[in-house]
Amino acid sequence: MCFGRCARCIGYKLLILALLSIVANILLYFPNGETRYASEHHLGKYVECLHGILGGGFLVLIPAAVFIGLHNDDCCGCFGHENCGKSCAMLSSVLAALIGIIGSGYCIIISALGLSHGPYCFTHLERNWIYPFTESSGGYLFEYNRWSECQEPHNIVQWNVTLFAILLVLGGIEFILCFIHIINGILGGLCGLCCSEEEV
Q1: Distances 61 to 15, 26, 71 between C-alpha atoms, Å
Q2: Where are the transmembrane segments (predicted)?
Q3: I want to staple 97 with a disulfide (CB 3.0 to 4.6 A). Which of 134, 147, 181, 193 is the partner?
């Protein structure tokens, strides 16, 4: 299989996943489409970590752009050998994949913490804004009867669980794709294989 073509395929997938992560993180800021909770600072601490916008979004867009542009990068050649230049480009793309690993890893960690910690909401028991599920260590996810403890924002538990779960899955897929490219980039760089003459 052509290493360069594989890299571009991964790049396009990462591009889509990064854009989806950004959208999901933005939605976390506006429960039920309402802006007042953000303006009143009634959002959970893990919502404000920008893990989907920065981690799973912009930091993953960097390797996506590098992978997609690999066919244009000859790396100036090495001692006049064109294939060596393409190998150099594949190896340098491994560094971009490491940035993607860091970004997607950050997205995974914060999403998992957000799911485990639970939402920040106004409860009828405390009559105050609190984190009612922190002691459950994620157990609240299966205790649907407790979700009604959060009165405001309406359906905030479902909102947070859905979006944090989506970001967790997106970050996981991004992580796997970047890891696959690290292997692909090392093999492509060391072997010096870059498809046939069609790709040039």
Answers
A1: 6, 17, 17
A2: 12-30, 50-70, 91-115, 161-183
A3: 181
Q: How much is the CA Rg of the chain, to the nearest whole Å?
A: 21
Contact (CB, 8 A) for 132 and 91 = no
Angle at 113 between CA 11 and CA 146, to 5 degrees: 125
> Within 13 Å and on the Cβ side, how many CA atoms surround 7?
35
**Degrees (nearest 5) of the Cα angle 21, 172, 54?**
35
For 2-36+44-71+85-117+157-194, the fitting CATH number among 3.10.50, 3.30.1240, 1.20.120, 1.25.40 is 1.20.120
For residue 119, what are its two tokens?
């939402």
- Token reading at 39: 């303006």
The two tokens of residue 13 are 């997938």
Cβ atoms of 178 and 66 closer than 8 Å: no
- Rounded-to-integer distance, Cα 44 and Cα 180, Å: 33
Q: Which tokens hold the place of 160?
A: 């947070």
CA distance 169 to 193: 32
Q: Residue 31 has which token pair?
A: 């429960």
